[in-house]
Design brief:
This protein is about 40% helix and about 15% strand. It is of the alpha/beta class. The protein has 2 domains: about 230 residues, Type I PLP-dependent aspartate aminotransferase-like (Major domain) (Aspartate Aminotransferase, domain 2, 3-Layer(aba) Sandwich), CATH 3.40.640.10; about 120 residues, Aspartate Aminotransferase, domain 1 (Alpha-Beta Complex), CATH 3.90.1150. A hairpin with a 5-residue loop joins strand 6 and strand 7. The protein is globular. Bound molecules: pyridoxal-5'-phosphate. The site of pyridoxal-5'-phosphate has 15 residues, from helix 4 and helix 5.
Length: about 375
Amino acid sequence: MVDLKRQYENMQEEIDAAVLNVIRSTQYINGPEVKDFQSELEAYLNVRHVIPCANGTDALQVAMMALDLKPGDEVITTSFTFVATVEVIALLGLTPVLVDVDPDTFNMDPGALKKAITPKTKAVVPVHLFGQSVHMEPILGIADEHGLYIIEDNAQAIGSEYIFNDGTRKKTGTIGHIGCTSFFPSKNLGCYGDGGAIFTNNSELAQKLRIIVNHGMEVRYYHDSVGVNSRLDSMQAAILRIKLRRLDDYASARQNAADYYDKAFGGHPKLSIPVRSDFSTHVFHQYTLKTSGINRFELQEYLQSKDIPAMVYYPVPMHMQKAYTDPRYKQGDFPVTEELSERVISLPMHTELDEEQLTYITETVLGFCNR
Ligand SMILES: *Cc1c(COP(=O)(O)O)cnc(C)c1O
């Protein structure tokens, strides 16, 4: 699905030198590379505080810990997401409340959010799925009206921009109270191991987040709150500094590949191409088709037999997962989510796709669909 080898080879000297530099410095934890990456990412996102951490799941967990929620408090997110979003809510003893998504963007439907709010609701977690922003303006309004925190799960959309009604733009992850991202290797800004970060413009929250990721410790060996150990290491930070400088070029490469796919599949009776909303730019973490009248697992198998990887994100919605079954939810409760989980398929999408590969992939997909 991604070609990390070719991407590395295109900047091998720079990466090798940076990694070697960290090894020789022996400052493996909290070295200068981490601080430098932190301020470069703050500048890129135009956000006051970036708190690096160990992975995207930790970022979400730490964000929720910083809000001082009580067991039984409700946190609303979507059923059509990666498990981490829901997992951390449950892990902290909070109650995940799931809502349906918009059929065009696959992202949180503000109308569904509004209906799910109860007196116990304390926070909402919009997930910027597949590289495109959630429609944030209505969600900001709803959250404001009900006094809810907004934690953005930005693991799949770093670099994309939400466009407000008045034309103002903000990077996803910097719109709500706290934003979270992942630097898992296959993410749009991926390192060579695990990594993550938390963003906020609120200095008080930033201070809390920094304390939590560091064992609940502000003054060394004095622990005022229960924390965790969640750090981005210096080697990953050094790699991320190099890749951050290329992030916008990477987004363009992905958009070019998406344009090529769109041209090939647009208007096909069995394939719906991704809808690009007018309130967001799209950084195409995934290129996801909605199929109709074909068996997408047969398509996946067919592509596999031609050496083309394809993946189904996500085949089982969260409300249908064994770990998250809840008497409040049953099959049929989230029709858009359920339909998507039955129909979507994602094609290879990365920064190194060339015309020859794109031609081969599109011709092979069309060959299956037209037979
Ligand atoms: C990848 C991902 C995460 C978790 O990130 P990790 O770094 O793997 O822990 C969380 N939410 C979403 C939507 C993701 O895609």
